[in-house]
Specification:
Layout: H1 5-21, H2 34-57, H3 61-67, H4 70-97, H5 99-121, H6 125-130, H7 133-161, H8 165-171, H9 177-191, H10 193-200, H11 202-210, H12 220-245, H13 278-290, H14 298-324, H15 333-351, H16 360-388
Helix pairs in contact: 1-14, 1-15, 1-16, 2-12, 2-14, 4-5, 4-9, 4-10, 4-12, 5-7, 5-9, 5-10, 5-15, 7-15, 7-16, 15-16
Amino acid sequence: MNPNPVLGVFFHWLGGLASASFYVPYRGVKRWAWETYWLVGGFFSWIIAPCVLAFVMTRNAVQVLHDTPGSALFWTYTFGVLWGLGGLTFGLTMRYLGMSLGMAVALGYTAAFGTLMPPIFRGVFRSEVLGTGSGRVILLGVMVCLLGIVVAGAAGMSKEKEMSAEQKRAVIKEFDLKRGLLVATFSGIMSSCFAYGLAAGDPIKALSVKYGTSPIWQGLPALIVVLLGGFTTNFIWCVILNLRNRTGYQYFSSEIRAGARDPDSQRRMETVTDAPAEEMAVAAMNEGNQTAGPRAPMLANYLLSALAGTTWYFQFFFYTMGETQMGHFKFSSWTLHMASIIIFSTLWGIALKEWNGAGTRTRLLVALSLVVLVGSTMIVGYGNFLAIAPSH
């Protein structure tokens, strides 16, 4: 199969749209704590959807995983666990730096490390990235993506400056720049481990193709292993919160028990690599847990959480498809993924009127961030096209 970077960019845009949209169904969840609906959705995100799609779309998925070398399985799974740690510490980044600055710093680290470390680790960064015209164009696209993230963060900070002192204190009660930067660094680097996990899963992809799977679906069995690692981390943390906040009963009973919810737990953010617009996420968590009513609508909550979790999975379903189209420089897929998430998150924020009332400067920064990020995806796509053009 000949790579097609234009199609690859399109697939990554679809993945970004899925990532930016997955939290919308959670807005309808009523009377459940964050840890409850996050874990229910997570079963579909990290276990059910990956297994079902891999078994349906690929050949001999069980045999592929059985024949994969143990070292490849270990590192693919381990990087998934580390990615989960990045997501769990992302909420602390928001707490110490505020949403806009925290989001920009953490996403910047994630984009940079997730894109550049794989070729550095393989020892080909100098020869294949810096040493080729196409590689340098892709590197320029990565830098433009980072610039777009900075502009997006500036838009958020501009919006925060327009808030009253009382509103600022409500948003950033524990502002601590030094601690926040340390946590953001840890969170961003750990979150980029998803890209490392997919790279470590290359032997799984090769075996999948060997067993007759179309190259475009080769990444699906590897996703099973990476997401199992992420499930492990999130499962442990959600169960801890269920026990601490006495919310475990919510999986089985529609009854609302007094004193069961910890309001602070409702403000925890989702993982950095799949975060929708930050204000939208907070609104979803607040709306989903403060709706009046004597009982939780169990069937609706389960269905909405399942829809959200399945939508979340499709970001990486399309990611693996896009990666197959990027040719020799498939590491650039991570930049395309990150840029696409922010693009569609911002568009969701505009559609949901999050930026209503913002000043002219803030609106211009939002528009500029969209232009820069869309431009970064085009530059990266063009760099990949240059890499394959001589063969046509």
